[in-house]
Amino acid sequence: MSALERRVVITGLGAVSSLGPTLDAHREGLAARLATTEPSTESPSPGGPVVGFAPRRSVHNRLLRKLLQPSALYAVGAVHQALAGTEGVGALDHPDARARCGVFWGSVSFELAPSFFAPALRASCDAEGAFDLHAFAERGLPLVDPLLIVKGLPNAALCGASIDCGLRGPTANHAGGETAGLQAVAAAVTAVAAGEVEQAIAGGSDSWLQPQHRAELAARGRRETASEGAAALLLESRELALHRGAPILGEVVGVGDAWGTVGDTSALEAAARDALGLESSIAGLATVFGDGGGTVPDRRREVQALERLGGPRFVGLAPALGFVGAAGGVFALVHAVDAVRQGLRGGETGPNPDDRVLAWVADDSRTEDGADGKAVAVALAPEPTDG
Amino acid sequence: MPATASASIGAPAPNTRRRIVVTGLGVATALGLEVDSLWYAVDAGRCGIAEIRQLDASRLPVRLGAEVDVDVLQRRLSEESGEHEDPVVAANRTLLFALWAARRAWAAAGLSLHGCAAAGLDPRRAGVVVGAGVFPAIETMVPPSLDAPDDVLAAGVGTAHRDAWRAYDLGLVSDLLSSRLGLGGPSITLQAACTSGTQAIGEALRRLRRGQIDLALTGGADSMMSLFAVTGFTVLGALSRNPDPATASRPFDARRDGFVLGEGAGLLVLEELEHARRRGATILAEVRGYGASADAYRFTDMDPDARGAIAALHAALTDADLTPDAIDHVNAHGTSTPQNDRMETLALHEVFGDHAQRLAVSANKSQLGHLLCAAGGIEAVLTVLALHHQRLPPTLGLHHSDPDCDLDYVAGASRAARIRAAVSSSFGFGGQNGCLVLTRPPGDPEAEP
User: Fold this and answer.
1) pTM (two decimals)
2) CA torsion sign, A208 to A211 to A217 to A218?
3) What is the nearest CA distance from A30 to chain B, expressed in angstroms?
4) Which of A127, A210, B20, B92 lies at a 20 to 30 A Cα distance from B268?
5) Closest CA to B214 of B342, B124, B345, B299
6) What mean pLDDT do residues A338-360 have?
């Protein structure tokens, strides 16, 4: 058997969201709010800040607690949850295992709190409101946060998780817009499948609550409430999971990563088809977990792609979580894992090994024409009960 | 047409690992906008560090940088394509450098600038994996009202300067290259601080090896030469306070005191070997191995025992299936900070043992400054050129020996050497590490160390 023939399973999950600061709390909040809906729904969406997250309980390293911005702190919390095994996994107890565990993360933005730059900017402008370099040198510079660069680094979430959890394996921090988190998951899946790592943490985190980011979101015409959060998965080879007796929460059967014309759904549809595999019957696609919000073109894109894939059931993320940027696709995948475990037909008949569940995310390019963009999809199957 | 790259788990794998080669290079640096002119300047021992021109740094504590001549770049890009007129590209030097270097690398690989289809390639089998950094030029974003509280002021910045904020979307970098060159595979932007460029090349290598794609545009692009970014690095204590351009960046020197900010891009076209041979491409080098690790130590400090760097170096050599004594040259991270250079030397001793004394270690940051997210890209380009020309780039400014830095750093001047295989290393802020192993092209008598 070659390295690429390895099967990849999910053995840990973690979530910190506006629905709750832990996976269980997130699930409870989701159950109360999540409704199976068409992506064209006009219902107002929740979102907003994470409430109840306690850095002292969730992040061990005191310096990290001081240094990291909220979305990075959430990332560390979500990774701890995935490793600690709220499902009883007991993962990565051995230091050698942590030394080899990879971290593939999606985190995109310089999360610049207003206090990092507003005082310096204000002190550097003249009476007419024009920026003055001499004023900056004399009055603004001392007001620049000494850790401005460090605090804002997009890879702070990944490095924080690595430090706080002692993960020393290969890393990759994806920073490409809303697809970043699920793109990181796809990268981790293929790395495990190829034998490059035995285990990998993968996920995404983001926060859109800074005032300047809210303004950007509004200008882009997205209708969801700005939100924040982090979601994480522990991925590993099926052989390893079986060997160490880890409960298997789901199996990843394929990933797709596409660039193309998003306006006519081609990138999203192509990513989905690739994740399902050419040999897979579209008829076996039970449910798609996607965005279900955003702009009118976003919603139209998902509707059209669903139609082309034979009209599977759709569960939209946005009505439950609001806009969570780079973490959105990963949250969709976490919800898909839960759906797989609970059965794909309303929980009455249990998982059907022939059924497939898909999580997808797409992102319009914000280059000048905006016609192109990227899409990522991850396909899941229930772990057959015959093992 | 959609363009995709997929991985079907459980698909049969090839019996042998696909070999990945370099077929094109493109650069934008303080020492040149063309590969040939850059190599000439590097080989001649020129230094691209000077007084910062694009902003008045006369009253700042740090006044030196290694800047790209953007006026020349924009004029030439305008003559070729008019692409600088795009306001988003024009507002963001990282995008400008990435676009310029991508066009150079693509053309150097013998590919049509009209896109994959025009070049006779399957767009779905070609992708972009690029490391990139940007930082908002906050000084240009004065809000309508300065009297407002911080959060209202920040909202005003975001509202009044929406296009400027949009330009700082990191994903734009790979998006722009995928769009302009019609590359239909994955479009990936990575940000791993100073390891970004190396990590991008390594991730591209892995996608090519797995058969997800046949061709990749990869490397790094960055510019953080804005007032707040320069100031941010200054107050962090990372930059050299030495006012002499010739010695401000002096990796491995006993008196080193920090790095000098640079900017630019270094991009490579990587290709599966048989794919390159079928289309008659000139093969410049082989990317033989990649290793990555995390320090998991402290966010703002490197592990003094170099465990992360050692792990990445070991992993790269293992991946390349080479023993340490097969390596002749190391293009070091060599930042000129007290921490890095001591730690990096320790790592080389640990990994290479007695052979470390026979390594030739070059630090290009002494000539080009620290290109941050682009550093790994430009240093990989220079490693390919060193292999191609069989010459070792120099480390400038190295006049005072440090007992903790006791290797051959090719001090002062370049020299000819037999280079069979080389390592290019990056050790980034936050503890992300990446190392590449490159060799001469397959079939070259020196290609099999």
Assistant:
1) 0.94
2) positive
3) 30
4) B92
5) B124
6) 69
